[in-house]
Each structure stands twice: as structure tokens, then as C-alpha cells.
Amino acid sequence: MIQINFNEIKIDLLFDFISEHKNKRKQRRMVNTKEDIIKKITDEIPWVDIKPFSHNIISLQLTLLSEHYGQEEANKLIRNTKLIELGWSEEKD
Asked: Tell me, what DSSP letter sits at residue 88?
């Protein structure tokens, strides 16, 4: 006679389900929409030369924007905000 421990199987399946769910949530959080990136940049602009690392945050977000949505999107944002006045410049594709 074969004995099957259903409690262990249920626990294993539950553990797999939870692990998969956590991984999916983590992946969703890592994706930045164009609007999210633009908001982070525009929220940081008033703090340039006031808060430490504001330049770094803006530059990193501009890099993300260009990598995910194209350099033209990053250049458009630089043109349409006062980033040029603050020292940023448009980059070629």
C-alpha cells in the first residue's frame, strides 16, 4: 500500500504559489512607467543645488527614460523643463 502525505503536498504547493506571487509583485514594482519617471524628475527639479544627490537622481531618471522610451523623450523633457538652465543638455540619439 502506498501512503501519500497530502499535508506536505499542500504545504509545498502553497509555498510555490507564495514564492511565485512575491516574484511577480517584485517585477511589477521594478517597472517604471514614463509618467513615473517624469514625475520623479519634475519633483526633484526644485531641489537642485539644495538637496544632496538631486543632480544624481535626475540624471539617473533621465537615463532610465532614454533607455526605456528613447533619447528623444529624454531630450523633450530637458527642453520642456528648466533642466537646460540647471546644467543639463540634450544628447544625440
From this structure: -
- Residues 64-81: what's their mean pLDDT? 96
Burial of 8 (0-12, 13-18, 19+ CB in 10 A): exposed
pTM: 0.67
SS3 45: helix
Indicate the domain borders of the chain: 35-80
Q: How far does Cα 41 stand from its chain's mean position?
A: 12
Top-confidence residue, 78 or 28: 78
Chain segment 30-62, per-residue pLDDT in tens = 668 999 999 999 999 999 999 999 999 999 999
Asked if 55 and 62 count as a contact pair (C-beta separation under 8 A), the reply is no
Sign of the torsion formed by the C-alpha atoms of 72, 73, 79 and 80: positive
Nine-digit cell string for 25: 509583485
Angle between helices 34-44 and 54-69 (to 10 degrees): 160
